[in-house]
């Protein structure tokens, strides 16, 4: 079994399309949330999620979109117009219903490995699980698979945009595929980050993608998008600073 593991796409259809082209031989695709906001192509992203039958959970930006989509009908002040509003203007009722259909948590088994997939550990926080106690507590609350006794336990998180694996003991770990769209400010790389799960192996992956289309679209919104959000997009989709 070969699984493509994605997270934090953030309306970046360009990077998503590139990764899907690169990883055509996978058996299944999972996404750890945050499909929309900050990027330019929310409808295209959701269309690809449906087309490729990507199994997804909702992230905090997905939830924010569900709320904003209802609120935007009442209008938004010009100086408060952000990417979330840009995205909300593009999506229709069917898109919102599809986004709402994603669960918050998914549990599944692959061989003798149990998995829980959820966007983040704690709401409104970038904290990560550091202790076996908190790992076990989370596992008891969310794992609904069929494995019992001695088996490896893995939690898949997104949210932090930091690709990595954290072991709390020999057979308990959480992993994060990183963001398909952008890095944190302290990470100058601009590639799309993701992972491959192949049998028991976890494979780190990253790939460059063409950003000219994104930058051209971002620049069209100068003077319309709130400057702070515009600066974020220019940083996210600018040239690699390595």
UniProtKB/TrEMBL annotation:
Entry GO CC: cytoplasm
Pfam families found in the cross-reference section: Metallophos_2
InterPro entries (alphabetical): Ap4A_hydrolase, Calcineurin-like_PHP_lpxH, Metallo-depent_PP-like, Pesterase_MJ0912
Superkingdom of origin organism: Bacteria
Every Calcineurin-like phosphoesterase domain range: 1-197
Gene3D superfamilies: 3.60.21.10
Molecular function in Gene Ontology: phosphatase activity
UniProt similarity note: Belongs to the metallophosphoesterase superfamily. YfcE family.
Listed PANTHER family: BLL5683 PROTEIN, METALLOPHOSPHOESTERASE
Protein name: Calcineurin-like phosphoesterase domain-containing protein
């Amino acid at each position: 079994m070969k699984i493509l593991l994605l997270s934090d796409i953030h309306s970046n259809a360009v990077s998503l399309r590139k990764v899907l082209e690169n990883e055509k031989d996978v058996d299944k695709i999972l996404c750890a949330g945050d499909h929309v906001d900050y990027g330019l192509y929310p409808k295209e992203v959701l269309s690809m999620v449906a087309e490729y039958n990507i199994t997804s959970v909702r992230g905090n930006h997905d939830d924010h979109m569900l709320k904003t989509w209802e609120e935007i009908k009442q209008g938004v002040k010009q100086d408060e117009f952000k990417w979330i509003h840009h995205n909300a203007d593009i999506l229709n009722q069917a898109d919102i219903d599809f986004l709402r259909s994603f669960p918050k948590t998914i549990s599944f088994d692959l061989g003798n490995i149990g998995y829980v997939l959820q966007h983040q550990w704690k709401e409104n926080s970038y904290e990560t699980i550091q202790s076996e106690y908190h790992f076990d507590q989370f596992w008891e609350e969310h794992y609904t698979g069929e494995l019992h006794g001695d088996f490896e336990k893995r939690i898949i998180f997104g949210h932090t945009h930091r690709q990595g694996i954290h072991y709390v003991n020999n057979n308990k770990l959480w992993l994060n595929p990183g963001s398909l769209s952008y890095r944190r400010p302290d990470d100058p790389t601009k590639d799309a980050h993701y992972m491959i799960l192949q049998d028991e192996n976890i494979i780190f992956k990253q790939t460059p993608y063409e950003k000219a289309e994104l930058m051209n679209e971002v620049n069209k919104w100068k003077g319309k998008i709130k400057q702070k959000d515009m600066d974020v997009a220019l940083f996210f989709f600018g040239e690699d600073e390595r």
